Amino acid sequence: MYNLNLKKSIAGHKLLATVTITVVLALFQTACTATAAGSSTIVPAATSTSVAVPVQPDPDAAKPSNPGGVGPALALTGDAASGQTIFTTYCKVCHGDKGVGGVANPGSKDGTVPSLNPIDDTIAHKDLKVFAANIDLFVEHGSKPDGDKPQLSMVAWGDTKSMTPQQIADVIAYVISLNSGSK
């Protein structure tokens, strides 16, 4: 970004024009850092020494059967009230009112859809960002429960673009609010 500042002053009968150009180098300089796959990521030079690492799920938490990492919803602020509305529209049919579970899932190992209130102890986490990352994996990528032929499987809301990242962030905030006493 260039800041062009023209100053005019009259000294005697002479016109002085001073042009000051300020270049903000931190906004333009970039550093490329190689990734394991051999591609490169552009990182602003001002932050190249401390690149923000996205919050990762707890390695000991339950994981969905479908592969994938955390999604863009984790960079957003979720709204639990909006999340409740979205949950009622899309999630209640499988997870029950307020996520209390009890919905039959013939063919799954335990015969029901998992409860989200209370949520699996390994998914709940005292660090709310990690808790959100643990939930995000399931909402983003979906999951097929263990069992011979479960009739219901978790939809990959993020992968299929059936929910926007903001909607996912809102649902995550709502599910966390249902488990405010967890861990």
What does this protein look like?
It is built from five helices and four strands; from the N terminus they run ββαββαααα. With 183 residues, the chain is an alpha+beta fold. The protein has two domains: 2-47, no CATH class; 72-178, Cytochrome c-like domain (Cytochrome Bc1 Complex, Chain D, domain 2, Orthogonal Bundle). The strands form two sheets. It has a two-stranded antiparallel ribbon. The protein has a two-stranded antiparallel ribbon with strand order 3-4. Strand 3 (30-34) and strand 4 (40-44) form a beta hairpin. The longest helix has 14 residues, at 128-141. It starts with a strand and ends in a 5-residue tail after the last helix. Residues 1-51 have low confidence and may be disordered.
Question: Could you name the CATH homologous superfamily of the largest domain?
Answer: Cytochrome c-like domain
Second-tier CATH architecture of the largest domain: Orthogonal Bundle
Distance between the termini: 47 Å
Strand content: 15-25%
Unreliable residue stretches: 1-51
- Please give the count of helices: 5
The CATH topology of the largest domain turns out to be: Cytochrome Bc1 Complex, Chain D, domain 2
- Cα Rg: 25 Å
Count of DSSP E strands? 4
H/E order of the elements?
EEHEEHHHH
Helix content: 25-40%
Query: Could you say which structural class the secondary elements and strand pairing correspond to?
Result: alpha+beta
Average residue pLDDT: 77
State the domain count: 2
Gist of the model:
By secondary structure, this protein is an alpha+beta fold.
Comma- or semicolon-separated keywords:
183 residues, alpha+beta, Cytochrome Bc1 Complex, Chain D, domain 2, two-stranded antiparallel ribbon, two-stranded antiparallel sheet
